[in-house]
TrEMBL record:
MF GO annotations: exo-alpha-sialidase activity
Protein source organism: Streptomyces aurantiacus JA 4570
Chain positions covered by the region annotation Disordered: 227-247
Name by which UniProt lists this protein: exo-alpha-sialidase
Family of the protein in this entry: Belongs to the glycosyl hydrolase 33 family.
GO biological process terms on file: ganglioside catabolic process; oligosaccharide catabolic process
Domain of life: Bacteria
GO CC, any one term: membrane
């Protein structure tokens, strides 16, 4: 296969115009460099304006039924070395279903989240499912490294967990990078064989921002929290879809994202603590704090946590319930070691234990031992979220929300800390 045949094809705009000619040229130049060109997709005027709010404290990067997508879900956000905010999401074309034709999309903001540039496709599903964005900015190179997960658009999570799919249809892992502040990304490169054990079936990166270690023995390492499901032991009557087969793990790179390996694996599979979607933050003492969704474990509580003292290679202890976050329902959430509020560890998630509603912020002053709620952003429905430091005195929250439904829009909120 020639080098050019491996390049991604230009992204077609829905409304051809003179502007498309310039975009096509940009796509061709990017393809020649081995990059996925981020051609903007035309949307309705209301969506393109991004909804500037008074004081620029909030905006709406993604709204349902715009840009040819039914729903946008699974937000992830990072701030580049140049101060640009990159808001990733899954663009779900036909419905809000977790399977089907799903792209990984991106919008950029150069004014702190007040306004957002054109929507661009970073990883095209082309009928299949690409999602679970886990971006991170490498502080040594300035590159944006993005990990995503893939499966055939014709199969479901349940089928994958039951082992009813082929290896090609099942969950696979890809990495991309950007050298130009998120304007273009390299072609997705598969790393499944390095980061997925043969016994694993389901697999999900993040979702949400990954972590670049900035101090300690492993400074420079990129760490991506992830989760998987395992096949039942031979002879078991289980089919593998039982929640107890979920487990958490990490993958990491010590060479700026070129190669990857598996770090810790939480593999009890006893049904007590079922670690699932995870987020991580590096504490001031160099340790990693890990927070995980508990997918219907029998222990009381919906949030699990643990620590790693060796840069994500092993856990200091197994995942256990975090009792001070019992208000959080069964859902993905985000953690961030902030420079504000005297260096608090921050946590974002819905704050009604039985419903995805009322996005809130918690803080910990003791490195994750205990959390206290400090702010409720809204009483509206709320789902997945991600946190980012936007300035020394402010953080941003990118989260799913809506009035009648949880996935009506992906909201950006700037919060002083």
């Amino acid at each position: 296969m020639s080098r050019m045949s491996r390049m991604t094809r230009a992204i077609r705009r829905r409304r051809p115009s003179v502007r498309d000619g310039f975009a096509a040229g940009a796509v061709a130049l990017a393809a020649a460099a081995g990059l996925t060109a981020l051609a903007g997709l035309g949307g309705p005027p209301a969506a393109a304006s991004a909804g500037r709010a008074p004081g620029c404290s909030s905006s709406v990067p993604y709204a349902a039924d715009t840009y040819g997508y039914d729903t946008f879900r699974i937000p992830a956000v990072v701030r580049t070395d140049r101060g640009t905010l990159l808001a990733f999401a899954e663009g779900r074309r036909a419905s809000d279903s977790d399977t089907g034709n799903i792209d990984v999309v991106l919008r950029r903001s150069t004014d702190g989240g007040c306004t957002w540039g054109p929507l661009a496709v970073v990883a095209a599903g082309k009928g299949d499912t690409r999602g679970n964005p886990a971006p991170v900015v490498d502080p040594r190179t300035g590159r944006v490294v993005l990990l995503t997960s893939y499966n055939s658009g014709a199969v479901t999570e349940g089928q994958i967990m039951r082992g009813e799919v082929t290896a090609a249809q099942s969950r696979r892992v890809f990495v991309q990078s950007s050298r130009d502040d998120g304007r273009s990304f390299s072609v997705p490169r598969e790393i499944t064989s390095a980061v997925k054990l043969p016994r694993w079936r389901w697999y999900a990166t993040g979702p949400g921002h990954a972590v670049a270690l900035t101090h300690g023995r492993h400074a420079g390492r990129l760490v991506v929290p992830a989760n998987h499901s395992a096949a039942p032991a031979p002879g078991s009557s289980d089919n593998g879809q039982e929640p107890k087969y979920y487990g958490g793990h990490a993958l990491y790179s010590d060479d700026h994202g070129r190669s990857w390996r598996i770090g810790f694996v939480d593999d009890t599979y006893d049904g007590v603590h079922n670690s699932n979607e995870s987020s991580a933050a590096q504490l001031p003492d160099g340790r990693l704090y890990l927070s995980s969704r508990d997918q219907h474990g029998v222990a009381v509580g919906n949030r699990l946590d643990s620590y790693s003292a060796d840069g994500g290679r092993t856990l200091s202890r197994p995942y256990a319930v975090q009792p001070t976050l019992n208000d959080v329902p069964v859902v993905q959430a985000s953690v961030l070691q902030s420079s504000g509020w005297s260096g608090s560890l921050l946590f974002s998630g819905p704050s009604v234990p039985t419903a995805r509603q009322a996005m809130a912020l918690w803080r910990s002053r003791d490195a994750g031992l205990t959390f206290s709620k400090v702010l409720t952003l809204s009483q509206d429905r709320a789902g997945y979220s991600d946190l980012v430091q936007v300035s020394p005195g402010a953080v941003g929250v990118l989260y799913e929300t809506g009035v009648k439904g949880t996935y009506e829009r992906v909201m950006w909120r700037r919060v002083a800390v």
